[in-house]
Backbone:
């Protein structure tokens, strides 16, 4: 399966991605997580990306496209992947289309998580993230068992710098102007499927699973 999750920041892409890749046995490719790992490690890429991320702006397309090209060349992506947070612009979507066409491995489906702006502001400003393993929490709806410590790995739980309200509002504006046009791009290709991202995490997962089940082709045999 080759899947893209679309939706504004805070829609629940990362939360759903982890659950869906566990069911389909494919890698979760989050460009935000890759960038944050580079920032933490102080790589040249991280240093270049940080100022865009801190402001809630997009990292330039050339940087992101190069990074994704390298990630897709890794062996675990050969049999499928789920993108979360990529593509974010029409040029990124065109570059991805060229990459997957070259390998004759087209995208199967683009699932858009639909949620309104007030909900995403509350989700983003209450989001907390493990600084070690990136597991996602929420101060009200999904707190860790022990305050400040990740349930999964014991790492420190922090608020992302770009989840502060001033930056969140810019990120939503960037999404509206630069990322929302992708919805037409994928609609025109017959790939776009919408689900409501309102409801419990489990309910949203079941909506996504119902759609993905329509595309899941048997492996290694005649699909007919
Ligand atoms: P995205 O990856 O789209 O930016 P996240 O998956 O990080 O979004 O979710 C943003 C915040 O919303 C997190 O704090 C997460 O715990 C919370 N969240 C995710 N799904 C739901 C849901 N269905 N209902 C309420 N809160 C949710
Ligand atoms: P995310 O974790 O997806 O919310 O991304 C966090 C930040 O990383 C974004 O606000 C951007 O600054 C940057 N970023 C992540 N993915 C992309 C992308 N595909 N294109 C450009 N910038 C990105």
Residues:
């Amino acid at each position: 399966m080759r899947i893209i999750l679309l939706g504004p920041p805070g829609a629940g892409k990362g939360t759903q991605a982890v659950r869906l890749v566990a069911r389909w046995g494919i890698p979760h490719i989050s460009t935000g997580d890759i960038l944050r790992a580079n920032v933490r490690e102080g790589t040249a890429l991280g240093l270049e990306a940080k100022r865009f991320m801190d402001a809630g702006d997009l990292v330039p397309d050339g940087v992101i496209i190069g990074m994704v090209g390298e990630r897709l060349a890794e062996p675990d992506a050969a049999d499928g992947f789920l993108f979360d947070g990529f593509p974010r612009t029409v040029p990124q979507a065109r570059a991805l289309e060229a990459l997957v066409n070259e390998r004759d491995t087209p995208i199967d489906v683009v699932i858009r998580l639909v949620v309104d702006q007030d909900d995403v502001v509350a989700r983003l400003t209450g989001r907390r993230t493990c600084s070690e393993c990136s597991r996602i929490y929420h101060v009200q709806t999904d707190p860790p068992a022990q305050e400040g410590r990740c349930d999964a790995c014991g790492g420190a739980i922090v608020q992302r710098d770009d989840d502060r309200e001033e930056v969140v509002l810019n990120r939503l504006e960037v999404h509206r102007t630069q990322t929302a046009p992708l919805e037409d791009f994928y609609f025109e290709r017959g790939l776009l499927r919408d689900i409501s991202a309102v409801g419990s995490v489990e309910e949203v997962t079941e909506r996504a699973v119902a759609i993905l089940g329509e595309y899941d082709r048997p492996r290694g045999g005649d699909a007919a």
About this structure: Residues 165-179 form the longest helix (15 residues). The CA atoms of residues 67 and 198 lie 32 Å apart. Residues 218-224 have pLDDT under 50 and may be disordered.
